[in-house]
Amino acid sequence: MRLVKIGIASVNTTVGAFHPNTDRVLALARKMAAENVTLAVFPEQVIAGYPAEDLVQWQGFIDHQWPELERFAKETAALPLVSIVGVGIAQQGVRLNCAAVVAGGRVLGLVPKEKLPTYNVFYEGRTFGHGQPGMAETHRGVPLGDYLFQFDFGVVAPEVCEDIWSADGPMRRRAYSGGELVVNLSASPFRLGFWDTRRELIATRASDHQVTIAYSNAVGSNDGLIFDGGGFINQNGRPVLETPRFQEGHTTAVVDLDRTLRLRTENTTWRVDRESWVSAGGKKVPTVDCTAAVKTQREKLSYPVPAHRSFFLPAPDTRRSARVALCEDVLDALSMGVGDYFEKTRAFKLFGIALSGGRDSLLTLLIAHRYAKRVRPDNPGSLIQAFYMPSPYSSQQTRDAAETIARELGVPFQVVSIEEAFERETAAAQQMLGEAKLTPITEQNIQARIRAQRMWNWSNSCGGLFLQTGNMSEKSVGYTTIGGDLMGALAVIANVPKTVVMFLLDYLQETTGYEGIRKVLAKPAGPELAHDQVGEEELMPFPILDACFYLHAGEKLTPSEMRTALTAMFPEVEAPRLGDYVDRFVKLFHQSIYKWVQAPLSLHIGNLDLDRERALQLPVVTGSGWLRDT
């Protein structure tokens, strides 16, 4: 047996905080060494933080990383373990995103990332250069390129994030060249349902290539990207370990690398494929001999037996229901996004929320409170200030709902009327118009803008983080006010569809029993900027609105194709009415793009959102002729 204890670390980094980031890595490395870990795996770009975006173009940003990598090597020199650490380097005018192999006080090798994602939220092809098959260079005297690394426990094949997502990635040739333990360093953002996708992909790659895979993911949030952390160990297709998510730390497991080689001998398909690769001229990846660099201590390792002590019976099922998993993942992700933005910017002292008594501001408050409970468990409400700013159209029902939930959460609550200000601004606007009539929409927008202005004034004076509370569905059709409810320092639920907002609130009402949630849900959703406003009456039913958004913005369907899909999805709705909904949505969607680009930074939880700098990049000025049926 060749027993190897692997440690998977998730590290919460801040972009550009090189020294503190390295300190976090060092602390985890020391803990793992104390637990007899053989190989410590850290996330992608863990020294610099991720995503650094165009900061990579600054030479100083790159130059500051290498001394920290050397410091890590020096301070772990006495530890009997191998560490794989994410770092950025500059090589002959090209920036490379690398996995650094560190042991015995030295950097033993650098393996650059080959697959650079330039889609969705990723822009790596803009800043980094590609590693290449057969690349064999040196950087500061260290081997740089397409290499394997031989240690006293086996052959390690480092790679970085996207390399594992391509069937034509480096894993295949490295496995055929003798790589046994593939180490993937990742910074993969949280996306709804994506954890299962990662698990399946890693199991597939480990099975296809007959390797053991150790996968480590970043945790924490930088700007609007949220990283859920977690990691996997999978041996030749069999799951060994899944690590906790949404928390910094490390988890370990022992594998027998002899099992990986034995399964290769039994798998005739893998052997035949390797023979075909060799006969077709496949070039073997060279191996760097590191056996003299460090002597690992594996004598005390125990054979990895199942916790339930059976190789044939299934382990106890601890899986969450689909509903619980979705709700808890979204709430954990958004609370981490809010909290890390609050902490890492170092500009704020508390949160500020304008409560309307409606669903969106309620969910935003509950997310902020979820974070506050973690950092101030004895008095989480002290970290939040809530305001209710009634106008002539505000109902006693929404005021009571807002006051009730604030009281239940222990959040300071103030009522600050905007009625007099609304009258003054309405009169001033009418004076500016002269003979023209003030429109009802303008009257509504005046109320929203007064509230936003007051929140900004409060924020400027007390160092408060003004949270924007709008959802994705209403934002997609411009059911929001520039300078009003669209404003804030951080948009918490701007990428959460309205149907998901309501789903989460139903879940939270059941799990917490808060009376304030029940009171909010008892009233139809509406902005209360005019008499008896109901959002679904002014727009369309929210399930249909969200379906339109997904089909048009996500699936890129034309209006005629959307009608066909919606007819199948909502057979109870008359086809002409569905057609009207489609036409209304498409018109409002494309007319509202100019609003999106003025919205604050938002938190990302999926592949589809309206942040123009991250995901759905649409021109503000465009013709609409292509939307008409041909």
From TrEMBL:
Its EC number is 6.3.5.1. It catalyses: deamido-NAD(+) + L-glutamine + ATP + H2O = L-glutamate + AMP + diphosphate + NAD(+) + H(+). InterPro entries: C-N_Hydrolase (IPR003010), C-N_Hydrolase_sf (IPR036526), Gln-dep_NAD_synthase (IPR014445), NAD/GMP_synthase (IPR022310), NAD_synthase (IPR003694), Rossmann-like_a/b/a_fold (IPR014729). It comes from Corallococcus sicarius. It comes from the Bacteria. This is Glutamine-dependent NAD(+) synthetase. ATP binds at residues 354-361, 469. GO terms for molecular function: ATP binding; glutaminase activity; NAD+ synthase (glutamine-hydrolyzing) activity; NAD+ synthase activity. Deamido-NAD(+) binds at residues 445, 474, 595.
